[in-house]
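User: I'm putting together notes for a lab meeting next week and I want to include a structural view of one of the chains we've been expressing. I don't have a solved structure, so I'd like a prediction I can at least talk through. The sequence is below, exactly as it appears in our construct file.
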Amino acid sequence: MYTFATRFLQLMLFLMNGRMKTVNKEKLPQNDPFIVVCTHKSWIDVVCLGIALYPIPIHFMAKKELFSKVLIKNLLTKLNAFPVDRSNPGPSVLKTPLQLLKKKQVVGIFPSGTRNSEEKALKNGAIHIASRGSVPIIPAVYVGPHTIRDLLGRK
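Assistant: Thanks for the context. Below is the predicted structure for the 155-residue chain, given as structure tokens.
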């Protein structure tokens, strides 16, 4: 499902906004796990991050509230997302990402914690997870439209 969704969304974004440019992808660790971190202003940055790293699948950390509806929970799970309880960030928050890293998977974290347009202090969970998993943190930035209107306007 991840591959299908990535390819489908890549096509949709291309039709709406043209070719997406990815810079320095060749510098990513090859065949080694890592954590990719990116700021989060809209759902578009999540999609574009997945497309930019493809064919490397990203396992996205997502707030548990998104998993409250069965259909959305099933979809998110098939798209490699896993829930995190942000209001109670105990040791269990580390368990799933550390297991994924041990299996040589890539974990995606949005340290701003929520979608917003204001500058906000970043959360430090990625640092703890990377330290415990002995993996690098790869910073990513999305520069582009954040709304459907801007996508359709090819901004």
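A couple of points you could mention at the meeting. The longest helix spans residues 2-17. The chain is about 40% helix and 15% strand.

User: Perfect, that's what I needed.
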